[in-house]
Automatic annotation (TrEMBL):
One GO biological process term: glycine biosynthetic process, by transamination of glyoxylate
Domain Aminotransferase class V residues, every copy: 35-334
GO molecular function: alanine-glyoxylate transaminase activity; L-serine-pyruvate transaminase activity
Protein name: Alanine--glyoxylate aminotransferase
Organism listed in the record: Tepidibacillus decaturensis
């Protein structure tokens, strides 16, 4: 006989998922309503409003796509890009690379603008590409590059995109709810995120928002969106006034997202950002005080994801194993070129607590000494 799941207690301080807020877990245990029940439709409406609140946007098309962050990424590219469109993508880590793959599969001609892993994309390089390849359909960057801990400034790149009449696409999977995305103020045309990072919910939904300009691009497509499941014109008819059935919304996940966003609103957006900032900086100061070095470019370090150079004296896998075994504490290792070279420590959403900073520093110090 299989046993009921009784699992070890963990503190999730990796690159995501983060710890789920207990109120969110409780919301997920709420009995189901039918997905076209008027009460559930009202929950969907409130969820859209709450997503607008965290993105700081008035965009009409602001919904939660069924699927994880990568589904949000794919949604943006398959809906806005048609075969042959030129797209400039900033690549300074794994998720920029993933965007390239996704955009190419959508038929884009991709122009890659690179920066070393850990560093930010230089807006001058984006401008050069915009000049050289004009007309360009879209410029895409990752706001919080979870694979490296780099915090990409968006203002200048968004201005350039606008100047060259290109759509500005932003990956906000790790940034949303942890640092300001400010969709309308920055001038972002298409943005996607995920529920399992700073929103403190499980993985499973991807909040997506499109500006009016992006909606116009979608409406004036010459070709049908290649993916039936991710076709926003049909999905918007489900989330919007029409309520046309498209697919059955993952009801418990919508409860989770609704509660997660409600909690952020209750704390206040600015207070949430401040908590992430303070805990992130405290962690980084503590790591440096131990004599360790931070990996990401100084001045552009994320508060919710800290990357640390692994000292020569330490064995990457052994240290992470001991953290898990002795302290029930999960952190992440490096990916691609940073494999076995960095640790990635997350302080995202509900996991961003001062007590977690102290617990991690104490645990790491005892293992390394
Ligand atoms: N973009 C970024 C910046 C991420 O950190 C992640 C996941 O870690 C993704 C995209 C992909 O999201 P998911 O793993 O939820 O599909």
């Amino acid at each position: 006989m299989n046993q009921e799941l009784i699992l070890p207690k963990r503190l999730l301080m990796g690159p995501g998922p983060s710890d789920v807020h207990p109120h969110v877990l409780k919301a997920m245990a709420t009995p189901l309503l039918g997905h076209l029940d008027p009460t559930f439709l009202n929950i969907m409406n409130e969820t859209m409003e709450l997503i607008r609140y965290v993105y700081e946007t008035k965009n009409q098309v602001t919904i939660a796509m069924s699927g994880t962050g990568s589904a949000g990424m794919e949604t943006v590219f398959v809906n806005l890009i048609e075969p042959g469109d030129k797209v400039i993508i900033g690549v300074n880590g794994l998720f920029g690379q993933r965007m390239v793959d996704v955009a190419k599969r959508a038929g884009a001609e991709v122009i890659q603008v690179h920066a070393e892993w850990g560093r930010i994309i230089n807006p001058d390089d984006i401008e050069k590409a915009l000049k050289n390849y004009s007309p360009v359909k879209a410029v895409a960057v990752v706001h919080a590059e979870t694979s490296t801990g780099a915090n990409q400034p968006l203002e200048e790149i968004a201005k350039l995109a606008k100047e060259y009449d290109a759509l500005m696409i932003v990956d906000a999977v790790t940034s949303l709810g942890g640092t300001k995305v400010g969709v309308d103020k920055i001038g972002i045309d298409a943005v996607y995120s995920g529920t399992q990072k700073c929103l403190s919910a499980p993985p499973g939904l991807s909040p997506v928002s499109l500006s009016d300009k992006a909606v116009e691009v979608l409406k004036s497509r010459k070709t049908k969106v290649q993916s039936w499941y991710l076709d926003l014109s049909m999905i918007q008819a489900y989330w919007g006034q029409e309520r046309f059935y498209h697919h059955t919304a993952p009801i418990s996940m919508i409860y989770a997202l609704h509660e997660a966003l409600r909690l952020i609103k209750e704390e206040g957006l600015e207070a949430t950002f401040k908590r992430h900032e303070q805990n992130g900086r405290a962690l980084q100061a503590g790591i440096e005080a131990m004599g360790l070095e931070l990996f990401a470019q100084e001045g552009h370090r994320l508060p919710m994801l800290t990357s640390v150079n692994i000292p020569d004296s330490a064995d990457d896998v052994k240290v992470r194993h001991l953290l898990l075994e002795r302290y029930g504490l999960e952190i992440g290792g490096g990916l691609g070129p940073t494999k076995n070279k960095i640790w990635r420590v997350g302080l995202m959403g509900y996991s961003s607590q001062r007590s977690n900073v102290i617990q991690f520093l104490t645990a790491l110090e005892s293992i390394l000494s």
